[in-house]
Write a sequence for this structure.
């Protein structure tokens, strides 16, 4: 596409194979773009994958971006997500965040062993998630976690990943934990199952996406004692579930953009 005619613009490389989108590429400084490229950014009708570097500024200018600034802002931050879920009244396991030594001394007043502890920021793929059975394990966790993120343990062996683009569920599948691990992440030995998900899980994911204003997200959801709970939202979800189903995420994304759904 000619740069002079580009109305859809991408900063990131995710849409480089999409005919209707001109991809600029990510640069650390705005002045690394040429004057002509800066003008494209200013005048594009829509900007895809602006990255955290530009999302806030483009939103302030009133630009239409994808993913939304809300989606980008909450990526990889379990604390921000938890506050939002709790404020919205979305169902999630009982969770509290403890700042400072004095607050951390209250953990065992609020939770009984075992419970789940997490590194709340910049951890993914099941890393930084621990099942705490005793004081020694809690002490080890608290040495590396600031603040402490503590969550009720639900004894399940599988959960669900529901992936949403825009306002559409594009894929949903089960994740089953390995026998000796409570985590269902594929990177931690979990396996993917393609059996249909309960409609309640899909409806919860769509409801949460609308309420949170997330437009590219994979929600981790479980069913426990006939109730459905959200664990977290993943904006950088893996492709294993798509590959297992014979789906190509890039083609799904391209088709939604080409048809103006996104």
């Amino acid at each position: 596409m000619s740069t002079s005619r580009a109305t859809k613009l991408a900063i990131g490389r995710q849409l480089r194979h999409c005919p209707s989108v001109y991809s600029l590429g990510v640069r650390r400084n705005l002045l690394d773009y040429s004057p002509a490229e800066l003008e494209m950014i200013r005048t594009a009708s829509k900007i895809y994958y602006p990255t955290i570097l530009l999302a806030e500024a483009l939103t302030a200018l009133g630009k239409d971006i994808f993913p939304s600034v809300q989606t980008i802002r909450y990526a990889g931050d379990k604390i921000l997500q938890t506050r939002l879920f709790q404020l919205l009244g979305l169902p999630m396991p009982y969770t509290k965040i403890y700042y400072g030594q004095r607050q951390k001394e209250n953990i065992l007043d609020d939770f009984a062993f075992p419970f789940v502890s997490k590194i709340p920021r910049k951890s993914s793929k099941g890393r930084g998630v621990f099942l705490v059975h005793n004081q020694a394990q809690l002490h080890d966790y608290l040495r590396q976690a600031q603040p402490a993120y503590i969550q009720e343990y639900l004894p399940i062996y599988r959960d669900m990943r529901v992936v949403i683009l825009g306002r559409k569920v594009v894929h949903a599948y089960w994740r089953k934990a390995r026998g000796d691990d409570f985590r269902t992440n594929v990177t931690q030995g979990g396996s993917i199952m393609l059996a249909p998900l309960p409609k309640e899980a899909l409806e919860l994911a769509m409801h949460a996406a609308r309420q949170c204003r997330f437009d590219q997200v994979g929600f981790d959801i479980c069913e426990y004692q006939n109730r459905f709970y959200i664990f977290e939202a993943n904006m950088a979800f893996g492709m294993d579930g798509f590959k297992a189903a014979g789906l190509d995420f890039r083609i799904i994304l391209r088709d939604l953009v080409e048809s103006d759904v996104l």
Q: What stands out?
A: The radius of gyration is 20 Å. The CA atoms of residues 43 and 210 lie 28 Å apart. The longest strand covers residues 168-176.
